[in-house]
Amino acid sequence: MNRQTPTTALAVENRRVMRLGSVGLPASERTFPMAQPTTFSAAMLLLVFTTGCATSYREFTLDDGTSMRHEFRHGRPASSRTDTIEVEEASFDILLTDTLRGRYRFELRTSHPCISRIGVYRIEPGKRSLFFSVIAPEVKNGLWQGLSSPRRLTEENFPWSSRMETTTELFQIEIETEAGSRDRVYQPVSVPWDSKFRVADLRRHLPPAAAARLTATVVEPWRFEFDGRTWIRGYDSVGGEGPLIEYVLDGESVESWSELVTSGVAALPAVGNASEDALDLLLSETRARLSYRARDFRWSVIERGPGHALYEWSHQGCPTWPPQHEIARCDIAGPVVVSLRYTVNTARTRPTQEGLDFWRSRLRTATTGTAPGGERPLRVQADRKGEADSVPPDATLRVAGMCASAGD
Fold first, then answer.
1. Does residue 382 sit within a domain?
2. CA neighbours within 13 Å on the CB side: how many for 381?
3. Scanning 60, 109, 270, 280, which has its CA 20 to 30 A from the CA of 125?
4. Distance of alpha carbon 189 from alpha carbon 79, whole angstroms
5. CA distances from 280 to 14, 283, 284 (A)
């Protein structure tokens, strides 16, 4: 869906959440001051003129050492466009789910047919790093929308979030067609300083449960060893029934990866008290979900024991995901299933027999560890008594990142 970029610095996309200004009050109880006569000093008038009215230009140093100049209006970067690409939106969203999370949003129109890949890169002086990419992107009526993976809104994930000044980052959006041609456009994204104050206000007024999730350390439920390469934790979450952790190779990200190791905890299907029945249903549902509209889908259960299974699958791509090859282990642990998976993005790298054998062995010998004192590090939520102490689900706050169009 095409969304017009909000003209306010921070806009509420979901009306169930009204937490700006008067946090926690419904719309009917919010009060807004009447306009009052204001005395402006010369400095205030100069500030209003230079930041709110005038058009200005800013120089950026690109990854190849050259420079570019971009237009800013009302303190925000203007929409970028070429003969074949027009950026309609580039912004930063704040998601109110189990806690505060942030993600970048890009929307563009293009006349390019048969697009095989769209990549978004973060540009710094003399450096270009892949932020995320989409293989076989879905483009409807010439419009594409790309979202980065949501991450907890912490200083570690977003270093600029604690700096109380307007932050501007430069991104490059690259389109690659099936014929092999490439087209690029540069687009700055600005997060205004006043929006950061509102973000800080949201942090202060988070319910206790959501605030704990924001800074909680996610405990790895498995004991296993990686191969000799350097793996880093690319993403983690403490929502739901337990932890979700994704590991990527050093230099890659969860938005763009060649190999991925994932561990997590999820609720078992409700099929009575028999764990074997639950495991049968879990494997059946997993196979049906993975094989849906997948090309050349292959499935094999390598090992099956009391309350656990080791299985493997691969396909040559589907409308949602690129070609993949995965080896996975799942264990029943009371009311939840604990999983550990090794996945290869076969569109980017070809798995070797040696590598697959290594991970089959690693997953077969992995165990769910125990903490000192014998407590299993699985955070299982047996009831829903704390649901009222969480933020409303699936709500989004949009931080304006650029002007809607050149005609504003």
1. no
2. 15
3. 109
4. 10
5. 39, 5, 6
**Nearest 10 degrees: CA dihedral of 291, 367, 256, 212?**
110
The tokens for 269 are: 């299907």
3: in domain: no
CB contact at 8 A, 199 and 205:
no
| β-pair type (336-345, 324-333) | antiparallel
Give CA separation, 26 vs 10, 22, 199, 327, 379, in Å.
17, 9, 19, 48, 33
pTM score > 0.85 for this model? no
CA atoms of 406 and 87, how far apart (whole Å): 11
Looking at every residue in the chain, the average pLDDT score rounds to: 77
In the numeric block, which tokens belong to residue 145? 């929308």
Q: Which residues contact 387 (CB under 8 A, 6 or more apart)?
A: none
Partner residues linked to 308 by β-bridges = 305, 331
The answer to whether residues 187 and 295 belong to one domain is no
In a domain, 407, yes or no: no
Amino acid 96 reads L
By residue range, what is the domain housing residue 289? Answer: 211-368
- Tell me the per-residue pLDDT of 11-63, one tens digit each, with 9 for 90 and over: 323 322 222 222 222 333 222 222 333 344 454 444 444 444 578 999 999 99
- 237 CB-near residues (< 8 Å, 6+ apart): 98, 152, 218, 243, 244, 245
Q: Are residues 192 and 263 in the same domain?
A: no
Q: What number of other Cβ atoms are within 10 A of residue 289's Cβ?
A: 9
